[in-house]
Design a protein that fits this description.
Blueprint (H helix, E strand, L loop, with lengths): L11 H7 L16 E2 L3 E7 L1 H6 L1 E12 L14 E2 L8 E9 L2 E8 L8 E2 L14 E12 L8 E4 L9 E2 L3 E7 L5 E4 L2 E9 H6 L2 E5 L5 E5 L10 E5 L5 E2 L2 E5 L2 E8 L6 H10 L10 H6 L10 H20 L14
Parallel strand pairs: 1-10, 2-11, 13-19
Antiparallel strand pairs: 3-8, 4-7, 5-6, 9-11, 12-13, 14-15, 16-19, 17-18
Protein name: DnaJ protein
GO molecular function: Hsp70 protein binding; unfolded protein binding; zinc ion binding
Function: Plays a continuous role in plant development probably in the structural organization of compartments.
């Protein structure tokens, strides 16, 4: 604030940029700039089958529309007066003294006119909207989910959000949220499918039926004499996801194989397998050299849990060092 000057309109700087009125939609002698209403965003849960086949969902929503009885004026006569509390701006300005020569200026919607800048007498209020200018309305929207749409993709209905006087109506936006599928995973236009083989199937061949997302039955089988190793993949062209707005083009279907090994084998089974499998590698050490070796005992571990436990032990040891007096300097040089 300059010395000796009077109070200035806090929205003058905005009027110079926007040509009248505050950027928040308040009134002004230089004219009013039409605001745009807020967009309304709704999440829409869909399955992977919905995104593969396409679908439509009808949703009932409630929104505010301009009152038809008073045409959004809020009064029977269509007249209103300027709010005395905010002088028609729709906002009140509050100034706080923070310190010597320092002030803070804050603004908030006028509570007397609810930010409209206008007031209506009780006798003149519209009997249908009670002076609110808008009334609630139920509307059913049909949301069309096209083939190949992605998780997080938006479907917009322009101008279907809440209506308000002197305001351009915002949009209703649906954001797709894909639910997790128990068998298929999607990555872009490709699909990944998990399948477990027995050891016999991985060595001697396999055949199984895969039910696709459109309920088609695909026969998947190995080639004669093929050995399928654990953690290997097979790909099938044109059986992935349809491409958005090009539904006749599809990505690939990848099948990830894991192999289930038996927990143990009997001596008879071991002999039978040794008779048909490639021979064991010949030992490079003599029996005398093996007798001189130290025999060890190994055991099964879950490596992820093992690493997690080790990391926790290291963290606890580090925390104990921090608790030592003198910043953990426990070793000192002897003074000569």
């Amino acid at each position: 604030m300059g010395g000796g000057g009077g109070m200035h309109d806090p929205f003058d700087i905005f009027q110079s940029f926007f040509g009248g009125g505050s950027p928040f939609g308040g009134g002004s002698s230089r004219g009013r700039r039409q605001r745009r209403g807020d967009d309304v965003v709704h999440p829409l849960k869909v399955s992977l089958e919905d995104l593969y086949n396409g679908t439509s969902k009808k949703l009932s929503l409630s929104r505010n529309v301009l009152c038809s009885k008073c045409n959004g004026k809020g009064s029977k006569s269509g007249a209103s007066s300027r709010c005395a509390g905010c002088q028609g701006s729709g906002f009140k300005v509050q100034i706080r003294q923070l310190g010597p020569g320092m002030i803070q200026q804050m603004q908030h919607p006028c509570n007397e006119c609810k930010g409209s800048g206008e007031t209506i007498s009780d006798k003149d209020r519209c009997p249908q909207c009670k002076g609110d200018k808008v009334v609630p309305e139920k509307k059913v929207l049909e949301v069309v989910v096209e083939k190949g749409m992605q998780n997080g993709q938006k479907i917009t209905f322009p101008g279907e959000a809440d209506e308000a006087p002197d305001t351009a109506t915002g949009d209703i936006i649906f954001v797709l949220q894909q639910k997790e599928h128990p068998k298929f995973k999607r990555k872009g236009d490709d699909l990944f499918y998990e399948h477990t083989l027995t050891l016999t199937e991985s060595l001697c061949g396999f055949q199984f039926v895969l039910t696709h997302l459109d309920n088609r039955q695909l026969l998947i089988k190995s080639n004669p004499g093929e050995v399928v190793k654990p953690d290997s993949f097979k790909a099938i062209n044109d059986e992935g996801m349809p491409m958005y707005q090009r539904p006749f083009m599809k990505g690939k279907l990848y099948i990830h194989f894991s192999v289930e090994f038996p927990d143990s084998l009997s001596p008879e089974q071991c002999k039978a397998l040794e008779a048909v499998l490639p021979p064991k590698p010949v030992s490079q050490y003599t029996d005398m050299e093996l007798d001189e070796c130290e025999e060890t005992m190994s055991y099964d571990v879950n490596i992820e849990e093992e690493m997690r436990r080790r990391q926790q032990q290291h963290q606890e040891a580090y925390d104990e060092d921090d608790d030592v007096p003198g910043g953990g300097q426990r070793v000192q040089c002897a003074q000569q």
